[in-house]
Structures are given as C-alpha cells and as structure tokens.
C-alpha cells in the first residue's frame, strides 16, 4: 500500500504545485528505505524540473527532468501505484521540447505549463503542443472506487 503522503504529492503535482510536491515527497524520501529512495527522488526531481521551467530556468529544468527520468527507469512499468512509464514519457517529451527550443525559447515552453497566459518576446519560437504533465495511477488509488 502506498503512503497517503505519496498521493498528496501526486495531487500537488497534478495541480501544478510543484514546490509543494517536492516538499511532500522529500519528507517521504528522507524516511524511505534505500531501495525506495530513487523512486521518490526521481518524482521530486521531475517536479522541481517543472518548477524551474515555470520560472524560465532552462538549465535547471533540463537537468532535473533528465535526471528524474533516468532515476525512475528501474521502477518501470509501475511502482507504488504510479504509472512510471507514462510519467517518464511525459518528462522526456517536455525535455525534448526544452532542448529543441533552447535557452532562448524557454518562455514559449514555460507558457504551455502556466495556467495564466504569459507574453513571450520570442515570436520565432514554435508553439509547444504538450498537455500539462500529470502523474497517473497504474491501478485504482487506495480508498478510491473503481467506477
């Protein structure tokens, strides 16, 4: 059974509250057994990557999306009720968009992530057509109906 705090972190991530997600998962990560630490660290690195993206920090976003994806690889296809393959695929898609845009196009990529429309001065940037990242359950969440 997954800890309630994990699902709290998932909900925070899915609302785009990446900093709170980091704080929640960091507390779990610090108390986790050695074999579980990379799982929690991978998710929180992806969350912080999106936090950096939202703040137009191209380098921080690219590094953490890549490191988090790599750290989660051993936990594919699913772990602790989380669809790890889907999360890694999403992080990799955003990372590819960042790499394609380069540092000068980070605002265009970040605008896709933001709930508010951000003006960008880079009119040459290609639009990014990625849905907001979401952590999905690999099975029904504890205490959740299957209907």
Q: How would you sum up this structure, described in words?
A:
With 147 residues, this protein is mainly α. It has a single domain, classed as Orthogonal Bundle (Hyaluronidase domain-like), CATH 1.10.3450. It contains six helices and two strands, in the order H-H-H-H-E-E-H-H. It has helices at residues 4-14, 18-31, 37-54, 58-72, 84-101, 106-113, and strands at residues 78-79, 82-83. A two-stranded antiparallel sheet has the order 1-2. A hairpin with a 2-residue loop joins strand 1 (78-79) and strand 2 (82-83). Helix 1 packs antiparallel against helix 2 (18-31) and helix 2 runs antiparallel to helix 3. The protein starts with a helix and ends in a 34-residue tail after the last helix. The model is unreliable at 115-125 (pLDDT under 50).
Mean pLDDT: 87
Give the tally of β-strands: 2
Number of helices: 6
CATH class type: Mainly Alpha
Structural class determined from secondary elements: mainly alpha
Residues in β-strands, percent: under 5%
- Give the proportion of residues in helices: 55-70%
The topology string of helices and strands comes to HHHHEEHH
Radius of gyration: 15 Å
Order of adjacent strands in the largest pleated sheet: 1-2
CATH superfamily: TTHA0068-like
Q: How many strands, which pairing sense, and closed or not: the largest β-sheet?
A: 2 strands, antiparallel
Labels describing this entry:
single chain, 147 residues, mainly alpha, Hyaluronidase domain-like, two-stranded antiparallel sheet, 57% helix
